[in-house]
Amino acid sequence: MTLALSHQWQLSAFGQQNLRYVEATLPPLAPHQVLVRVEAVALNYRDLMLVENRYGMTPTLPFTPGSDMAGTVLEVGPEVTRWRGGERVISTFVAGWLDGAAPASAFPLGGPGPGMLASHVVLDAQWLSAAPTTLNAAAASTLPCAALTAWVGLVQDGGLRAGQTVLIHGTGGVALFGLQIARLHGARVIVVSGDADKRARVLALGASQALDRASDWPSAVLELTGGRGADLVLETVGGANLGRSLQALAMGGHVAFIGVLDGGELAGSGFDLIWRRAVVKGVSVGHRHALEQLMRAIEANALQPVVAAEYPAAELAAAFDHLARGPFGKVVLKF
């Protein structure tokens, strides 16, 4: 292996104050592994929760956070045929999930799997996909978790098609990718947000309507759709919000349940669920094959992710602070 060292963020005890930017020795390449020079890492709120031990699973310390990486393959093990070196790549969020049902052995990167907040990483060759040729590293790094979650929830599981109405909650990374993907498919999008400035920005991004979260938005969705309701919902909030989403759902509608911002407990009417013949399906990102389908769609349609800010690799604390404030788009660290 041509390089033995990596500069990486490492957590020795839970809490952001315990993050240190250190120099670490990389393991030698196994025959099935590759060495990747990391160029950008997009943060997810999950990363912040893991650092603060609020995620529901406790990674083994010390660990390096971060799951969503874009970089370049520098070196490959002798058994690797998927890459030769020099390719621009992105990580797959769920390591070992290539297609179909997720195997029991699959796991997310950045906890419990290896973290991407590092200048160089050694990974299994199967845990990478080719980056879109239309995006720079910062934009490409936003795709493995947020973009794929929206794609799976709306397209793979939800069967999104032109002319449908999609209801999206919030303006986080998954929500904005959901808006872009829905518009790409010719669907109408209604966004619910508690922030007036962000409501204006989603309208500029292509949403048909933006409703105030403090309003009676389920009734407004029904009124806007002539009483039909939304065909698809990206449910990012959870809690009692799921019940309100069901009230705004069309007959036979599909709810992609992807977030628990209001906590892990759910509340809603079983009568709405039955009467509307609703499908509520949990989404935990997706497999590599779906990510590759998404990459082709992004290239063909020149989709540009919304990046809220880019920070130098050494400024992780500032990037996490920005993430905690609720950015409009993705926060990225550049190595």
Number of beta strands: 17
Helix/strand-derived category reads alpha/beta
Return the average pLDDT rounded to an integer: 94
Number of helices: 10
Order of helices and strands: EEEHEEEEEEHHEHEHEHEHEHEHEHE
CATH superfamily of the largest domain: Medium-chain alcohol dehydrogenases, catalytic domain
Number of domain modules: 2
Percent in helix:
25-40%
3D shape: globular
Largest sheet: 7 strands, mixed
CA radius of gyration:
20 Å
CATH first level of the largest domain: Alpha Beta
Low-confidence runs: none
Give the second-level CATH assignment, the architecture of the largest domain.
Alpha-Beta Complex
β-strand percent reads: 25-35%
C-alpha end-to-end distance: 21 Å
What name is given to the CATH topology of the largest domain? Answer: Quinone Oxidoreductase, Chain A, domain 1
